[in-house]
Amino acid sequence: MTSLEHGNGQMNEAAGDARAAELAHKLGLVRQRIESAAAAAGRTEQPRLIVVTKFHPAADVRRLAALGVEDVGENRDQEAASKSAELSGLDVRWHFIGQLQSNKAKSVAKYAASVQSVDRPQLVEALAKAVVREQDATGRSDLQCFIQVNLDDDAGAHRGGANPADVEVLAEKIEMAEGLVLSGLMAVAPLGADPHPAFERLAKISETLRAVHPAATGISAGMSQDLEAAVKFGATHLRIGSDILGSRPAVR
Ligand SMILES: *Cc1c(COP(=O)(O)O)cnc(C)c1O
């Protein structure tokens, strides 16, 4: 299939079937990797798979849902808002995993089950306000919030997130906010480095957090390249994109 057919969502039925088969195959491989990693780590509870569908069309989300996927992740509000609106009847949960400007909180509150990239107090305030408003209008459930932690000590190269020292203040603020639930932590392993020490560190930060907030058990870690390391160090949520959907453009 050409990238054009794939990108424009106007596929004929035969091409659509081929894409569905491709997704089924790659999803199966990733599920096997997760099971093996969980078995190797002696874990009885499987982490939750969030399939990251950014850059890929709404039609792919529909195919994934037909394959049993219940959770999808997006990192840009404009794209997520339009896909979730197009698929409003579909039974999937939308997770927001990208850097988020406070002025987008209102939009995100309309479709997101979780925001996994909460990294500063102003964003907590904006999300709480937006969710309460949405709850008054539509009765939506509380928004699950993951605090994104920066695991990269090289400040110039860091991939977003709050400093570990600031996690407790943010956690407290989320706990106090109406409409928000503190779910746990999220992190991205530093680029080009062994992910094991980073995820081990994340596990320790999670332990510290849970000592004060026992219900905040979530650890969202692990992408296509490093899911095994994340499972080893207790990830409860994995965010997998390219190994299921294929490569996406590097920039847009
Ligand atoms: C894109 C993205 C992912 C998925 O990464 P893959 O390498 O494609 O599996 C996970 N987490 C975040 C925050 C992302 O932006």
TrEMBL record:
Keyword Transcription: no
A GO MF label: pyridoxal phosphate binding
Keyword Cytoplasm (UniProt): no
Top-level division of the source organism's lineage: Bacteria
Keywords: Pyridoxal phosphate
The Alanine racemase N-terminal domain, residue ranges: 30-249
Pfam families in UniProt: Ala_racemase_N
Record-linked InterPro entries: Ala_racemase_N, PLP-binding_barrel, PyrdxlP_homeostasis
Cofactor: pyridoxal 5'-phosphate
Residue(s) carrying N6-(pyridoxal phosphate)lysine: K54
Cited function: Pyridoxal 5'-phosphate (PLP)-binding protein, which is involved in PLP homeostasis.
UniProt-listed HAMAP family: PLP_homeostasis (MF_02087)
Family statement drawn from the similarity comment of this UniProt entry: Belongs to the pyridoxal phosphate-binding protein YggS/PROSC family.
Protein name per the record: Pyridoxal phosphate homeostasis protein
Organism: Paenarthrobacter aurescens
